[in-house]
Design goal:
single chain; 104 residues; alpha+beta; 6 strands
Length: 104
């Protein structure tokens, strides 16, 4: 079994933290988390994961609450992980702006 973690830098002091576990070329579980750098701390903004044995997104609010999406259907966890990376890369600024609105 292969476990990996890597970072994808994004504009505006943000990054994606990608963690996954795979076996024989198949993704078994993953987390793709958007983080932004505020006040010297990397802060989680939103993430896709398989923590509950299904794909879903958690939007994280500044007060610590999490807004959970319903389970999402994909042909494979690999497809879901690629979707998550693409969504968070393309929409990172929108997710960060929303987080900042929730903060004020």
């Amino acid at each position: 079994m292969d476990e990996r973690e890597y970072l994808i830098p994004l504009p505006g002091d943000a990054l994606l933290r990608v963690r996954y576990q795979k076996d024989r070329g198949h993704i078994l579980r993953f987390t793709v988390q958007l983080e932004a750098y505020f006040g010297g701390v990397w802060t989680p903004i939103t993430r896709y994961d398989t923590a509950h044995r299904f794909v879903h997104r958690d939007d994280l609010k500044p007060d610590g609450t999490e807004l959970k999406s319903p389970p999402m259907a994909f042909a494979s966890y690999g497809d879901a992980m690629n979707f998550a990376i693409r969504d968070l890369r393309l929409n990172s600024l929108l997710y960060i702006e929303r987080y900042l609105r929730w903060k004020s």
